Every structure is written in structure tokens, then in C-alpha cells.
Amino acid sequence: MKEDQFVVVNDLGEEIVCNILFTHEAADGRNFVVFEFSDTHEISAALYIEDPDKPGEGILQDVENEEDWEMLEELMSHYEDDEENIHLWFKNLRKRK
Known about the structure:
Blueprint: E1 5-9, E2 15-25, E3 31-37, E4 43-50, E5 58-62, H1 66-96
Antiparallel strand pairs: 1-2, 2-3, 3-4, 4-5
């Protein structure tokens, strides 16, 4: 598995690989991860809580606060704009070669 991936287990016990799109540390120190399910390409987000005894490992919790969802949606819109700009930059770079 790649460094920017993790696995979740659904209600049926099936393992699904998720691709991390980006992470965000909120002003209050909480960490969020925005990711895409590799099977459906659905995008979601979760609150990441690191295990204090195992750095780099932790659990994901559902985002339940409407303010958090609004913040994540705004970040996602910036991410999508950046992705489009990167795509256009590569496209223009190829044209110059």
C-alpha cells in the first residue's frame, strides 16, 4: 500500500482502499483527512485521532459538526481549483515540448 493510502472495513467486512487527497490541521489542533474511496471514487472526510502510544497510527471518527463540514467543503473547493491549475500547467508544459 502506498503512503497516501489507508484501508477501511465496511459494514460487510470488506476492505476498501482509500486514497488520501489532503489533510488539514484545524486552528484548535484537530486533524482532518479528506479521502477518496478507490472502488466508488466517492469523496469523504473524517477526523483523525492519533494513538498517543503508536505515532503514525490512529482512528478515524465521523465529522459530525456542521461548521467542520463547511470548513472541509471550502478546503475541498480550493483543492479542486489547485488540481485543475496543476492539470492545466502540465497540459501547457507538454505543448511547449
